[in-house]
Amino acid sequence: MKHDRYWYVFAAANLGLLALAALVNDGLAGWSVSLFFLGPCVVWPALRLSPGWLLLCLGVSGLAGDAALPTPPGFLMSLFVGGAIFILAVRPRLGRVRRAQQIGLAWLLNAAYFAAFTGWAATHQSAMGAAFFERAAVDFGLSQLVVLPVALWFFDFQESALAFAGLTAATPRAEEAF
User: Fold this and answer.
1) Domain ranges (residues) in the chain
2) CATH architecture of 6-176
3) How confident is the model at residue 32 (pLDDT cuts 50, 70, 90)?
4) C-alpha dihedral sign at 127, 77, 100, 25
């Protein structure tokens, strides 16, 4: 199996985004608002890596995120792998993946991840009521608004990190990615 150095860059970038999300949510804690913008973590790796290296990248990223979230071990990693499976399934139909499609995938994955995380929290919340769902709706709306500029920034950040590592950031055709 050929060694793919791209996964290092993608895993490091994902760890940076996880750290940024933790810092932002720590700063917003006084306002009783939290933002979830981890949808972009899966897009570039799923579009560029072979399945084996993709699993390694998302395993490292997901387990690091699981350490920071109050969920059971493997929860975020399983969400990341589920999102990657979705992208791998639609990747051959996408043709050349442009930035607008990448943003759309990030936005869609962010909504799915938020829904899964909120569903888990709803089943494990001791005092669940209307306030929980009102806050979830506000957090969801704000998260979906914030994920758009975050995804633009994050994809540019990944492109810069690849260039720094001496790797090409050219977007492959979806069928060439395998």
Assistant:
1) 6-176
2) Orthogonal Bundle (1.10)
3) confident
4) positive
Q: In 29-169, where does DSSP find H-type helix? A: 40-48, 51-68, 75-94, 99-124, 130-164
Structure tokens at 120: 């888990």
pLDDT recorded at residue 24 = 93
pTM listed for this prediction: 0.88
Distance CA(162)–CA(169), nearest Å, equals 6
Pick the closest to residue 40 from 88, 98, 80 (CA basis): 80
pLDDT number for residue 178: 44
Q: Using alpha carbons, select from 147, 141, 138 the residue that is nearest to residue 104.
A: 147
In this structure, of 49-58, 99-108, 129-138, 163-172, the range with the lowest mean pLDDT score is 163-172
**CA 125, CA 132: separation in Å to the nearest integer?**
9
- Rounded-to-integer distance, Cα 16 and Cα 22, Å: 10
- Tokens of residue 47, six digits: 């579009």
Q: How far apart are the first and last CA of the chain?
A: 13
